[in-house]
Design brief:
By secondary structure, the chain is α/β, with parallel strands linked by helices. Helices cover 40% and strands 15% of the residues. The protein has 16 helices and 11 strands. The strands form 2 sheets. Strands 3-2-1-4-5-6 form a 6-stranded parallel sheet, with helices on both faces. Strands 8-7-9-10-11 form a 5-stranded parallel sheet, with helices on both faces. Helix 12 links the parallel strand 10 and strand 11. Helix 3 crosses helix 4. The two termini are 41 Å apart.
């Protein structure tokens, strides 16, 4: 059997959707399972034994109809038996149409159901603590009636070499071995997904005041200025615990560094999803316009907690559409005071650092 899974989105989406590949591998151990993704997201798939081939959706496919059609015919020539489209937008519809796959599964959406042999309901509310992001992906496997129990947890695979390099980096920066290590997801993928920097500094202060820990900042070199703003806004006693320059060179090195940490706190995004895939506890601060019910995955009140402005100020969300909330997100962020959830952060630290081991 030859299978193609499509997910043309960002790192978090690609990582979460890899559970489709993982469960297909369990059910069909001898199948060829290919995964179509953006080139920038492939680091989270390295070492995954569930994926045989990664097919790249590149910028040229988005800019050129000729290149998109060319990719579509390449997929057609592979003669896939099964295609699962977890992306389900115009670009993937064209690829699905050209694929000629025997069975095609995606979400049920008006006007495009004819493209697929199986159209799965796009559920509006989660049924479990897995969160909609996980539940919706798993729902794409339901038409197959897989003869195995599905595993909902995305996985990252870190090599011995990568782990050793991360440990060496910790030693180089003289990270204190007798303390637990907290990673801060410092910045979102864009400003409207980034908790205000002065507020984030207070969050880091709460952590440093409550626990004697090492603190690492997750940021890209191009985000140095923003990271420095947070660092400078922290109390002197907090800054002593921050290893500001301990950074990886690329996404794989971040994954290895995260694997040496005990937990992660901060903005929703790829870093949080990677930490969860490494089975690290997470505390998420959601942007006011993001739907918590989708990305608050594995929320159990102990190992995975999250906060959203709507938890504290429901009045600010009355009669507001997602479009309106997105437009007002920066002003709404200013209402999301860190004092609201100080106790919740302390509870999270108590529950996950007391017995945490590296």
């Amino acid at each position: 059997m030859k299978i193609l899974v499509i997910q043309q989105k960002m790192i978090g989406d690609v990582l979460v959707s890899s559970i489709i590949c993982n469960n297909l591998r369990i059910a069909y151990p001898d199948a060829q399972i290919d995964y179509l993704v953006y080139a920038s997201t492939t680091p989270v798939l390295e070492g995954n034994p569930s994926i045989d081939n990664i097919i790249l959706f590149e910028e040229k496919h988005r800019k050129s109809k000729k290149e998109l059609l060319k990719l579509g015919f390449q997929i057609r020539n592979e003669k896939y038996d099964l295609l699962i489209d977890a992306y389900s937008k115009l670009e993937s519809w064209i690829l699905v149409l050209l694929s000629n796959a025997k069975r095609k599964i995606s979400y049920k959406k008006p006007g495009r159901n004819f493209l697929y042999t199986d159209n799965v309901p796009f559920e509006p509310f989660p049924k479990t603590n897995l969160g909609l992001a996980i539940e919706r992906r798993l729902s794409l496997l339901e038409p197959l009636n897989l003869p195995v129990k599905t595993d909902p947890i995305p996985r990252l695979f870190v090599s011995d070499k990568e782990n050793k390099e991360a440990i060496a980096l910790f030693e180089k920066h003289k990270v204190q071995k007798n303390r637990k290590t907290v990673m801060i997801s410092l910045l979102g993928s864009e400003k409207i997904k980034t908790y205000p920097l002065d507020f984030m500094a207070k969050v880091v202060d709460y952590i440093a005041d409550h626990e004697d820990v090492n603190i690492l900042f997750n940021y890209f070199p191009k985000q140095l200025q923003e990271a420095k703003i947070v660092f400078d806004a922290c109390k002197p006693s907090t800054r002593e615990k921050i290893y500001f320059d301990l950074l990886g060179d690329d996404l794989r090195s971040f994954i290895a560094i995260m694997n040496q940490c005990n937990l992660i706190i901060g903005n929703d995004g790829g870093a949080i999803n990677m930490a969860k895939a490494l089975e690290k506890p997470s505390f998420i601060i959601f942007s006011p316009w993001i739907e918590k019910k989708i990305w608050a995955t594995f929320e159990d009140g102990v190992h995975h907690l999250s906060v959203h402005l709507q938890d504290y100020r429901t009045d600010l969300f009355e009669d507001k559409t997602e479009k309106m909330l997105k437009k007002e997100s920066l002003s709404l962020y200013q209402e999301f005071r860190p004092e609201f959830f100080k106790d919740k952060i302390e509870l999270f630290l108590n529950q996950n650092l007391t017995s945490a081991t590296k």
